[in-house]
From TrEMBL:
<dbReference type="InterPro" id="IPR016162">
    <property type="entry name" value="Ald_DH_N"/>
</dbReference>
<keyword id="KW-0408">Iron</keyword>
<dbReference type="InterPro" id="IPR015590">
    <property type="entry name" value="Aldehyde_DH_dom"/>
</dbReference>
<feature type="domain" description="Aldehyde dehydrogenase">
    <location>
        <begin position="22"/>
        <end position="281"/>
    </location>
</feature>
<comment type="similarity">
    <text>In the N-terminal section; belongs to the aldehyde dehydrogenase family.</text>
</comment>
<keyword id="KW-0511">Multifunctional enzyme</keyword>
<dbReference type="GO" id="GO:0008774">
    <property type="term" value="F:acetaldehyde dehydrogenase (acetylating) activity"/>
</dbReference>
<dbReference type="InterPro" id="IPR056798">
    <property type="entry name" value="ADH_Fe_C"/>
</dbReference>
<dbReference type="InterPro" id="IPR001670">
    <property type="entry name" value="ADH_Fe/GldA"/>
</dbReference>
<dbReference type="Pfam" id="PF00465">
    <property type="entry name" value="Fe-ADH"/>
</dbReference>
<dbReference type="InterPro" id="IPR039697">
    <property type="entry name" value="Alcohol_dehydrogenase_Fe"/>
</dbReference>
<keyword id="KW-0560">Oxidoreductase</keyword>
<dbReference type="GO" id="GO:0004022">
    <property type="term" value="F:alcohol dehydrogenase (NAD+) activity"/>
</dbReference>
<comment type="similarity">
    <text>In the C-terminal section; belongs to the iron-containing alcohol dehydrogenase family.</text>
</comment>
<dbReference type="InterPro" id="IPR016163">
    <property type="entry name" value="Ald_DH_C"/>
</dbReference>
<dbReference type="Pfam" id="PF00171">
    <property type="entry name" value="Aldedh"/>
</dbReference>
<dbReference type="Pfam" id="PF25137">
    <property type="entry name" value="ADH_Fe_C"/>
</dbReference>
């Protein structure tokens, strides 16, 4: 008495403060319990939850009775079932779920998932399913080592407190801290709002009307709020009518229609409408006449809110009729209003939470879909839509078109929506309505939703690879392999005029002529220098007529690249040139997919010693329309067989020996320092580097054995860069070389020393590739220097000696070490250099450079290459 008096004398502000302090105290105690549970094992947690489930089950009836007495809504037997469901079905689904510590580990992927609680949860419960929701939410919280503070619906406070006490006692007896489950003793809107807004609360789990859910989301913290449903159910003409009606009557009478998933309207096809009505009547469903509908419209719905009137929800059909001034037989199960509109002007089309539904006659299934959609839009978006049908097409279409997160087929919606009873959905008393209903989740809420799941991701290098032609033949006269090559008899020989003039194509046709059995060949000599798409089209056209089973490319890089592209487009006419040259960061994850298997075999026989195209997955082709050179790169382009036969390079002109030799040297050095270099490729790179330094000048001077060595070295370097790829030297050499018509080997030679100096300084911007775990370019260059016999007391010194050695070699074979030495106009170069740098930055080779270059640095490097900075004047 004294306490009450004292309260009455408090000002509004003081009352508010008192409520705030009360809630804050609960939150503080909750945190103490949370800390205690932080070290609980899965076994401890499960023991507590099982105790809660057992207590819920044992008290299912008395709690249900108390709830009905207190709220004056619902059916004791059905509320008992709901309490049983919240204890038994929920625990059964949670029993084996891992919710503590490591819950998943994938050693292969190096990923571990660790479950941690979200923290203190504010649990808001409704009047419609009071005690069962308390059991459900408490169990979900405890299973996930969260603590929970409830704000019960004031109209169900007593029965919810009793539920709280029972499960709290059971949980504590099984080892839970006392304050793991708490509740607000004196409910009020202020108290619930304070609870949701208290900074010590980490997550809100709210079930209730739209106002409550909105308040939960407005708190600014993670909220799992689920709101109302206005679910329709459509009985389509192919349905089993008796079963559909049975389901709907069962659903609507279950706890007097208070499960939010229950049918609020039924839409029936015209053809079966009368039959359906008759069937409902056999179950004592009362059909309101027009006047009675009017009365219902006046009393059943609260005109201010447009939703079901407070006293109506959860009452029996008979009681509701009385409240609305309509006489119905006492044994009426469900009241039906035949209706034909949706929206505010048609009050009964709203959510009803009672054994009442509106019945719509649909002209056809499109009309039925329209009515169902309108009903969902009128307060039921995202919740539940039922369909009774045996027509698979209708079921699929309904599922696609309804904005509902639960599409229940041939089942009672109330008992279907909560899952586990009539289907295999997760059992839950909190049903997400997705973004349709302004909810975060669209599924039935479960334990996973109350966990913070941490992912421990171990560093993983991507799997690396080595891919080369399945066969490489070498040594003098290796071309004789063609005499015996199996399973081919239609040879399409690709070459160019220059190579044909050397008699090399004839050499090949001679060998083919000596094959036993059937053989046909055609020689295509129209490849040009740096071939373009017109040449490729021409070749594909010839191939379409000739229909080869093998393509033999004999020539330099231009011929081999052309042959690779011809085979690609001959076999894949649907692939466009633009698709084929798309770039990638990781060839395995590229957007454009290349074919995996080639029907036509490709044999490449190089007649220059440099490009490595005979083993590479690359073809460089110009666009005939724009003149731009594009790099096509995919392992689908790799030749099946390469033949490295030095008979074809014995008469190679000196300048070609020098240029292609430097192309090979560029390949070998860049592949050695590339971010994708591996122990498998570095051996090839070093072997090629050693051989080139030892033989290029001799080969240039006419030594035939040196030419053979150079020929092999170029292919070996090709194998290295086909798998390790290249770097910035090639990006610069490609762009500048093709713009100013400088032979690519020359362009490589000029850029190589500049890029080595650049890469051997600690980078400003670091290269990104998990396999490239530490910066190592400088020591890699020093390794190269040592391999070719240079000595020095530091990496720095060795790198500089390597640079000098490269310059000396280039000059010894007649290469001038600056772009200005090749007639490139200074003004023209300056005009284009910015654009060229951007192009080089985007070049595929830049991706694997050991230093990630800035565009400004590329500009500077290009300018240095133009002047031959630190090279030409230094000499
Ligand atoms: N696909 C790749 O992996 C790759 C790599 C680097 C370069 N490339 C490309 O290769 C092309 C350059 O190739 P290349 O340097 O081999 O030159 P090339 O194929 O363009 O041939 C140049 C000239 O040399 C002639 N020739 C070739 N072999 C000869 C021989 N043994 N004796 C006399 N003359 C001969 C040709 O008839 C031609 O006129 C460029 O288009 C370049 O883009 C491709």
């Amino acid at each position: 008495m004294a306490k009450t008096q004292q309260k009455e004398t408090l000002t509004e502000e003081q009352k508010k403060k008192q409520i705030y302090d009360m809630v804050d105290n609960l939150v503080k105690k909750s945190h103490v319990a949370l800390d205690e549970m932080a070290n609980f094992t899965q076994e401890q947690v499960d023991k507590i939850c099982e105790a809660v489930a057992t207590a819920g089950e044992q008290n299912a009836y008395p709690l249900a009775k108390m709830a009905v007495e207190e709220t004056k809504r619902g059916v004791v037997e059905d509320k008992t079932t709901k309490n049983m469901y919240a204890s038994e079905n929920i625990w059964n689904s949670l029993r084996h779920e891992k919710t503590v510590g490591v819950i998943d580990e994938d050693k292969e992927l190096g990923l571990t998932k660790i479950a941690e609680p979200k923290g203190v949860i504010a649990g808001v419960t409704p009047v419609t399913n009071p005690t069962s929701t308390v059991i459900f939410k408490a169990m979900l919280a405890l299973k996930t080592r969260n603590t929970i503070i409830f704000g019960f619906h004031p109209q169900a406070q007593k029965s919810c407190v009793e539920t709280g006490k029972i499960i709290q006692a059971a949980a504590v007896a099984a080892g839970a801290p006392k304050d793991a489950i708490q509740w607000i003793e004196e409910p009020s809107l202020d108290a619930t709002t304070d609870l949701m807004n208290n900074p010590g609360v980490q997550t809100i789990l709210a079930t209730g009307g739209p106002g409550m859910v909105k308040a939960a989301y407005s708190s600014g913290k993670p909220a799992i709020g689920v709101g109302p449903g206005n679910g329709p159910s459509y009985i389509e003409k192919s349905a089993n009518i008796d079963r559909a009606v049975y389901d709907i009557v069962l659903s609507k009478t279950f706890d007097n229609g208070m499960v939010c998933a229950s049918e609020n309207s039924v839409v029936v096809d015209d053809e079966i409408y009368d039959k359906v009505v008759d069937e409902f009547k056999t179950w004592n469903c009362y059909f309101l006449n027009k006047e009675e509908i009017k009365k219902f419209e006046e009393h059943f719905i609260d005109p201010r809110r447009g939703t079901v009137a407070g006293p109506v929800a959860g009452k029996s059909a008979y009681e509701i009729a009385k409240l609305c001034g309509v006489d119905v037989p006492k044994n009426t199960k469900v009241i039906v209003a035949e209706y034909n509109g949706v929206g505010r002007k048609f009050p009964l089309s709203a959510e009803k939470l009672s054994p009442v539904f509106t019945l719509y006659r649909a002209k056809n299934h499109d009309d039925a879909f329209r009515i169902c959609s309108e009903l969902l839009d009128y307060g039921g978006r995202g919740h539940t839509a039922g369909l009774h049908s045996n027509d698979k097409k209708i079921i699929d279409e309904f599922a696609m078109k309804m904005d509902a997160c639960r599409i229940l087929v041939n089942s009672p919606a109330a008992l279907g929506g909560i899952g586990d009873l009539y289907n295999n959905m997760l059992p839950s008393l909190t049903l997400g309505t997705g973004s349709y209903g302004a909810n975060t989740f669209s599924h039935n809420i479960g334990a996973k939703d109350l966990l913070n799941i941490k992912t421990v991701a171990m560093r993983r290098d991507n799997m690396q690879w080595v891919k080369v032609p399945s066969k490489t033949y070498f040594e003098h006269n290796a071309a004789n392999y063609l005499r015996h090559m199996p399973n081919v008899n239609r040879f399409f020989i690709v070459t160019d005029e220059g190579v044909a003039d050397q008699g090399f194509a004839d050499e090949i046709t001679d060998i083919i002529s000596k094959r036993r059995g059937q053989k046909e060949y055609e020689v295509f000599k129209a490849v040009t220098l740096d071939p373009n798409t017109d040449v490729i089209k021409d070749g594909v056209h010839r191939m379409n007529i000739f229909k080869p089973d093998v393509v033999i490319a004999i020539g330099g890089g231009s011929v081999m690249d052309a042959a690779k592209a011809m085979r690609l487009f001959y076999e894949n006419p649907e692939m466009s040139f633009e698709e084929a040259y798309q770039k990638f960061l990781d060839i395995r994850k590229r957007v454009v997919r290349f074919p995996k298997i080639n029907g036509v075999q490709l044999v490449c026989i190089p007649t220059t010693s440099g490009t490595g195209s005979e083993v590479s997955p690359i073809a460089i082709i110009s666009d005939a329309k724009t003149g731009i050179k594009h790099t096509l790169c995919d392992y689908a382009l790799t030749p099946d067989v390469s033949i490295v036969d030095d008979q074809f390079v014995q008469t190679l002109p000196k300048r070609l020996i020098a240029w292609s030799g430097f192309e090979a040297l560029g390949h070998a050095i860049e592949s050695y320092v590339s971010t994708m270099a591996t122990d498998f490729t570095r051996g090839w790179s070093l072997e090629a580097i050693k051989t080139i330094f030892a033989n290029l000048k001799k080969s240039y001077d006419g030594d035939l054995d040196a030419r053979k060595q150079m020929h092999d070295a170029a292919t070996i370097a090709g194998m290295a860069y086909s798998n390790a790829f290249l770097g910035l030297e090639h990006s610069i050499a490609h762009t500048v070389g093709s713009t100013f018509d400088i032979p690519s080997g020359v362009s490589d030679a000029i850029a190589l020393p500049q890029v080595i100096r650049f890469n051997s300084k600690r980078p400003e911007k670091l290269a990104m590739w998990p396999h490239y775990s530490v910066y190592r370019a400088e020591s890699d260059y020093a390794d190269i220097a040592r391999t070719i016999g240079l000595t020095g007391s530091s990496d720095d010194e060795l790198v500089e000696k390597l640079v000098k050695k490269i310059i000396d070699l280039a000059e010894s074979v007649g290469i001038k070490m600056a772009y200005k030495g090749y007639g490139v106009d200074k003004a023209e170069f300056d005009k284009k250099v910015d654009e060229l740098a951007v192009e080089a930055y985007g070049d595929q080779n830049t991706v694997t450079n050991p230093t990630a270059p800035l565009i400004s640095q590329i500009i500077q490097l290009m300018k240095d290459c133009y002047e031959g900075k630190g090279i030409v004047n230094n000499k």
